[in-house]
Amino acid sequence: MSGVPAGPAGAALRPEIDIARLPHVRPVHWGRIVTAAALLLLLALLVRAFARGQIAWPVVAQYLTWRTILEGLLNTVLMAVAAMAVGVVLGVLAAVARSSPNPVLRSAAQFYAWLFRGTPVILQLLLWFNLALIFPTLGIPGLWEARTVDVMTPFLAALLGLGLNQGAYTSEVVRAGMLSVDAGQYEAAKSIGLTYGQSLWRIVLPQAMRVIVPPLGNEFIGLIKTTSLASVIRYSELLHSAEDIYYANNRVMELLLVATFWYLVLVSALSLGQMLLERRVSRGVARPAGRR
Amino acid sequence: MSAPPLLRAWRVGKSFGTHRALEDVTLEVARGEVVCLIGPSGSGKTTFLRCVNQLERYDAGGLWIGGELLGFREAGGRLHPLPEREIARQRRSTGMVFQRFNLFPHMTALENVIEGPIRALRRPRAEAVAEARRLLDRVGLFNRQDYYPAALSGGQQQRVAIARALAMRPELMLFDEPTSALDPELVGEVLGAMRDLARSGSTMLVVTHELGFAREVGNRIVFMDAGRVVESGPSQALLTSPQEERTRNFLSAVLG
User: Fold this and answer.
1) Assuming Cys at both sites, which of A126, A279, A284, B105 could form a disulfide with B148, CB separation 3.0 to 4.6 Å?
2) Cβ-count burial of A2 within 10 angstroms (0-12 exposed, 13-18 middle, 19+ buried)?
3) ipTM reported for the complex, 2 dp
4) Domain count, chain A
5) Contact B151/A291, CB-based, under 8 Å?
6) What is the pLDDT along chain B (256 residues), one digit of tens a residue?
């Protein structure tokens, strides 16, 4: 009698088995094969539909690099980057104010988020753009003054509308990131004599970045597309340029596809950038080997 | 006439809501002395340490380091709470080592150590780096200076934390159960670093459950229970012949 207990069906009767020494049979993943086949079929149908549809592909290709379209693309990128910069600065300030020991700052930050998250962004764009209706002139009394219509260009109105709105959303993202940092980190920062501002800037925010960057990338992608709303206040961004052209030549779908193409390019580039940034901000966490 | 104590606590009290965490705590730590605070959990040892480092604000009695009242300024019979910047300055005379290390995870060991000297003391970077390397060498981690905390063992992290506290050149080192979060086989290396520190003449206030360490390294032991100092005395004497019933019960429970 051997001391090996018999398993079900007597499988354990060969105790000398070593799974490293036997060839492994690769299991067939039927689910993957079926879904892949189904999706390929759908894709084929879609390609066929577009090929037979009444789309003048040469026109799409022609307008892809049309001057007006490229200018619109540049304006979209400019506005998205500028509004995001405004949004991040305001968002960080509001988040820091929100978690400050100063109750006045806390309420102010709360009010800001409430106001700008509470109204549609298109409404805010229209309000900024039409500011001249209620304030014909802007300025600091005695120092500088100008007519509002000269100052409040489509660019500035879009920047204020989108930036202020973005800041309100970003402040919540940043606040969530700050809350994710362990309370012990604040205490350790204090214990080595750092001031509140220094501990936020050097210790808390860098760690919060790891949590902040993924949703912030999401916000940025959203913002790139929201810039298209600025077309209502005559800011010549990508969609506005496409519309201008198809009003003239009636190639509606072709130009919308051109805009689609460029939005996808922008968002893809952004996703790549986000990936690199995430790698950078997870220093000390996603690096088990530990060496720089 | 003996030298004035480095740390003086007189009838210190502290409440959390309705819970009285500290009551009437009076004790002194002289320069060069190693004092160990022992007692059951919830007895107020850690709270007392946190009041000394002003991570908590005490609400009764007085706390002085080097003769300077902590957290307040007295003028014309009235107390003014110190502004944040002044509190940060006062904190620099103490170095704190936490139970859970609290190293900055996004900085290497070296960067953890130089952060305070560069930002709070505004010392030149090269000088801070040279001193940090010396301190890391002193706790046996010279060749781990470029590692991130996640790549270090608990014992190594705690030794980096000791170096980080020392880099501020504090007059008083505070240890809050520095070995409680460590695997048993790593306790020795941290206690070893603390022993070296004590031998070099550092003034230390240590909250600990390591009675062996308290006996060997501590000059005095303070036993606390329910927020009060029950008994204090020279280490050997307090451990071998405690005067109070509660101290005896605690020691027999811990020593088995």
Assistant:
1) A284
2) exposed
3) 0.91
4) 2
5) yes
6) 467 899 999 999 999 999 999 999 999 999 999 999 999 988 999 999 999 999 999 999 999 999 999 999 989 889 999 998 899 899 999 999 999 999 999 999 999 999 999 999 999 999 999 999 999 999 999 999 999 999 999 999 999 999 999 999 999 999 999 999 999 999 999 999 999 999 999 999 999 999 999 999 999 999 999 999 999 999 999 999 999 999 999 999 988 7
What distance in Å separates the CA atoms of residue A270 and residue A223, rounded to the nearest whole number?
A: 12
User: Does the beta carbon of A197 lie under 8 angstroms from any beta carbon of chain B?
Assistant: no
Q: Are residues A52 and A195 in the same domain?
A: no
Q: Does A67 touch chain B (CB under 8 A)?
A: no
A107 occurs within a structural domain: yes
Picking from A47, A64, A81, the residue at the C-terminal end of a domain is A64
Is there a single domain that holds both residue A60 and residue A171? no
Please judge whether B88 and A292 are an interchain contact, meaning their C-beta atoms are less than 8 angstroms apart. Answer: no
Q: Which member of B100, B104, B168 has the closest CB to residue A203?
A: B104
Q: Which helix (H) or strand (E) holds B75?
A: strand B72-75
Closest residue in A to B116 (Cα–Cα): A192
Instruction: List, in order, residues 6 or more apart from A200 with CB less than 8 Å away.
Output: A96
Nearest by Cα to B84 from A177, A190, A84, A108: A190
A100 and A224, same structural domain?
A: yes
Parent domain of A41: 29-64
Crossing angle for the helix pair A205-226 and A252-281, to the nearest 10 degrees: 180
First to last CA, chain B: 42
Same domain, A47 and A120: no
Q: Are residues A211 and A195 in the same domain?
A: yes
How far B239 CA lies from chain A's nearest CA (Å)? 32
Task: Indicate the DSSP class of residue B53.
Answer: T
**What secondary structure letter does DSSP report for A199?**
I
CA quadruple A61, A63, A64, A66: dihedral sign: positive
Residue A22 lies in a domain: no
Contact B237/A at CB under 8 A: no
Q: How far is A217 from chain B (nearest CA, A)?
A: 21
Residue A76 and residue A59 share a domain:
no
Estimate the crossing angle of helix A67-98 against helix A103-117, to 10 degrees: 150
